[in-house]
Amino acid sequence: MNKIRVSAVSYTNTYPFLNGIRKSEVMDQIDLSVDYPSACAQKVIDDEADIGIIPTAALLSLPEYYINTDFCIGTEGAVDSVFIFSTKPIEEVDTLKLDKQSRTSNGLARVLLKNYWKKDVRLITDDAETADAYVLIGDRTFGKKNSVPFVYDLGQEWFNFTGLPFAFALWVSNKRLPDRFVRDFNAALAYGVAHAADVIVGLPKFEGFDYKKYLTQHLDFHLTDRKREAVRRYLDYLKDLQQ
C-alpha cells in the first residue's frame, strides 16, 4: 500500500499532534512533512499531500475536501498566538500588514475589522511598507505582547463578536482516505492531545509566556459542534469579503 502523505505545521500548537503521531504505529503508514500553515494548505490543494492540518480559510480553495478527525487547532476564547499588534487603538487603524505565513488569521482580521470593529483599512503585503498594525501568528508571537502598545487576540475578539469558539486549522484531506487509517490517525492525535504538556521539555523560554497554559488552556484541540458552526460562520463572512 502506498504511504499516505501527511503535511503538518511547524508551530508549537501542532507539537502535541506530532508527538502523538510519532509515538504511534501510524508512522509506518505515512510520509510526514512539516511546513508553515499556508504551505501546508497549498500542498493539499496541489495534491502534493493527501491530508494536512490546513488553515480553515483554505477550505474555500478546495473543490472537494473531507474533515477526517475529531481534532483541530482551536480555542474557546483567547488563543495567545494569533494577534493584531498595533501602534494605535484599533478604532484609529488605517493600514494593516498581513502575515505571509497565514491564511485563516489574515481572513479573521479582515472579518473582524469589517463586521465587528466597522473599520475599512488598507491591506499591505509588502515587507518594505510600514503599517499602523500587523497580523502575526504562531511561535513568532511568543513573549511579544508586552513590547507592543496595543494587542488584540483574534480568538478572543472572535468570541466577543460571535459568542463562538474558533478553529484555526483542521485535519483535511483532498480525497477519501481508508477508514482504518482515519481511525488509527485519530487515535494517534487523541494520544498527543491527552499528553499535550509532554512536548514542553526543551522548548526555548520567552519572558511572560507560559507553554503549559498555552497548550492546555488557551488551545482547545477538540473539534466540537460549536467549532464546526464557527467554521461555517467564518467561511460565510470570508466569502462575503471576496464578493
UniProtKB/TrEMBL annotation:
Listed pathway(s): Quinol/quinone metabolism; menaquinone biosynthesis
Superkingdom of origin organism: Bacteria
Keyword Cell division: no
EC number(s) reported in the record: 4.2.1.151
InterPro entries: Menaquinone_biosynth (IPR003773), MqnA (IPR030868)
UniProt keyword Cell division present: no
Keywords associated with the record: Lyase, Menaquinone biosynthesis
Gene3D superfamilies per the UniProt record, alphabetical: Periplasmic binding protein-like II
Catalysis: reaction(s): chorismate = 3-[(1-carboxyvinyl)-oxy]benzoate + H2O
Reported function: Catalyzes the dehydration of chorismate into 3-[(1-carboxyvinyl)oxy]benzoate, a step in the biosynthesis of menaquinone (MK, vitamin K2).
Family designation: Belongs to the MqnA/MqnD family. MqnA subfamily.
Protein name according to UniProt: Chorismate dehydratase
Organism, scientific name: Sphingobacterium thalpophilum
